[in-house]
Amino acid sequence: MDAAGGDAPVSRLERSGHTAFIDNNTLYVWGGYQVVAGEDVMLPSDEIWLCDLDSGTWERREITGDKPPDLSGFCGSYVNGALYIFAGCSLTGYTNQMYSVDLTEPNFTWKNMTDMKGTTPSPRNKHSCWVHRDRLIYFGGYGCKTIGEVRNTSSFVVEEMSWATIGNALFRCWGWNSEVCVFDTHTATWSTPETRGPAPTPRGCHASALLGDKGYISGGVVMPPFIDHSDPQKEKAVLDIFCLDLETWTWTQFDLSSSCAPMGRSMFTMTPTSDHTLFIYGGLGTDGRTLDDAWQFNTQKKEWTKMTHPHKDKPRVCHTACLGHDNDVVVFGGSSNMCFLMDTVAILRAPSQKHCRDVFMFQTQPYSLFRLCEDFIGKNTELFGDYLDWLPSKLHNKIDKRSAFFSPTKPILTH
């Protein structure tokens, strides 16, 4: 085991653009990148990191098999004990390949899923996914299509045209899409439902979340994110919200003109915290800043509420946020100071970028008495002395982990 603060190399945990999920109070982290000497460096695809959220200790696990290439902008999804990685951009260009790894097995092994049925979506990155009834439902992203594919769709905005060969297909059109593509994990089959209603504009770098049978989309970009001082409306853009009913495939757009809403943003997170509440944090604002604000959106009242929180010193972009125990929102990694520079020719990302390896949590509801007692004892084990030995072994082990979590010698997790 590589414990944080022990044998684990710091540089291997600091990352942005990764995927993460929580299972059995363990945070799993895979992929992502760092900026080294001004260049993006992808992190190894043959390893996955596990953090015990009770104790705050990390473990590195190897993944063998037919591993994915080094990817940026991929989409990772967890369903029924398996992690799926779809699409992204590698050193050789955009891809539409899918890989999976069964994390319930003693030894983790990648599988390149080449025996899928149906029509695989075109190569892309910066897309998102809802996991619904063992299906992976992908939305949006930036990628490439053939001339013929562009002619047959209205859900793709061409940004530029150039010649590129991917496999046996010749691609010319590059841009953003608002497509909905479904992958059934039981039958390994792709399908494309016909949606109705006011769909979101083609976009990527957005956030998505699932509440019941409804998928929500918010924010993102269709052009490189920068502030356009010639357009004051762009500076004042607020965060939009769209909902897709996954039973009827009908889009709905929320009218937020009469409510106080967050600034428009990209590369942020949106996490469901109740049957009708979405929690967003951070991102790159339309003013060019890395943000540290937190908001809740009530889907019944159609209202935003700005949250007060203790993490104002932790702006984040390209991070992950997962729902943990007691509806805690668990944030990991990302960059604390991403910014973009504009010159007369292009939009450039500033080379200085601080990647993070800390995990911190947002409390979204009152804790139970049991949780409060558990945390109090973990923080003050010296007050109880030998009495702790009277506890049942399972509870004693949990208190030991909580004690390690709050120990000053393990500052990786903050709460």
Question: Would you give an account of this structure?
Answer:
The strands form eight sheets. Strands 1-2-5-6-10-9-8-7 form an eight-stranded mixed sheet, with no helix packed on it. Strands 11, 12, 13, 14, 15 and 16 form a six-stranded antiparallel sheet that branches. Strands 17-18-19-20 form a four-stranded antiparallel sheet, with no helix packed on it. The protein is mainly β and 415 residues long. Mean pLDDT is 88; it is low at 1-10, 224-229, 342-348 and 411-415. The protein is globular. Strand 12 and strand 13 (135-145) form a beta hairpin. The chain is built from five helices and 32 strands. The two termini are 24 Å apart.
Give a short overview.
The protein has about 425 residues and is mainly beta.
Strand-pairing-aware structural class? mainly beta
Mean pLDDT: 88
Secondary structure: number of strands: 32
The general outline is globular
Characterize the biggest β-sheet. Answer: 8 strands, mixed
Distance between the termini: 24 Å
Poorly predicted runs are 1-10, 224-229, 342-348, 411-415
| Quaternary assembly | single chain
How helix-rich are the residues, as a percent range?
A: under 10%
Strand order of the largest sheet: 1-2-5-6-10-9-8-7
Percent strand equals 35-45%
User: What's the helix count?
Assistant: 5
Computed CA radius of gyration, to the nearest angstrom? 22 Å
